[in-house]
Amino acid sequence: MYAISYQLSAISYQLSAISYQLSAISYQLSAISYQLSANALGALALMGKSPDFKFSLISQS
Predict the structure, then answer these.
(1) For the chain, where are the alpha helices, taking DSSP H only?
(2) Mean pLDDT of 19-41
(3) How far apart (Å, rounded) are the C-alpha atoms in residues 36 and 22?
(4) Cα gap 30→59, rounded to integer Å
(5) Which residues contact 41 (CB under 8 A, 6 or more apart)?
(6) Torsions phi, psi of 10, nearest 5?
(7) 48: which residues sit within 8 A by CB, 6+ positions away?
(8) Four-CA torsion 50, 54, 59, 61, nearest 10 degrees
(9) Mean pLDDT of 26-34
(10) Pairwise CA distance, residues 20 & 41, whole Å
(11) Is 34 left (phi over 0), alpha (psi -120 to 50) or beta?
């Protein structure tokens, strides 16, 4: 009985460690997606396809 309870507690600790690793991976993926969206917005602004950039061009002319 004690061995079974120890094994179950070890399994629960391993599962909690896996869940922490998965949450860390999801945070890293969200950070990467934020960086990609920022890069895409920067590229659009450089190409002049951003609404703010077009508005600044119209207001200057």
Answers:
(1) 2-47, 51-60
(2) 90
(3) 21
(4) 36
(5) 50
(6) -65, -40
(7) 54, 57
(8) 150
(9) 91
(10) 32
(11) alpha
Please, which residues have CB within 8 angstroms of residue 11's CB and are 6 or more apart in sequence? none
Instruction: Kindly calculate the radius of gyration of the chain based on its CA atoms and give it in whole angstroms.
Output: 24
The separation between CA 17 and the C-alpha centre of its own chain, rounded to angstroms, equals 20
- Within its chain, how far is the Cα of 10 from the centroid? 30
Please state the domain extents for the chain. 2-60
Q: Which residue has the tokens 């960086």?
A: 35
**Between 32 and 50, residue with greater pLDDT:** 32
Per-residue model confidence (pLDDT) at position 59: 55
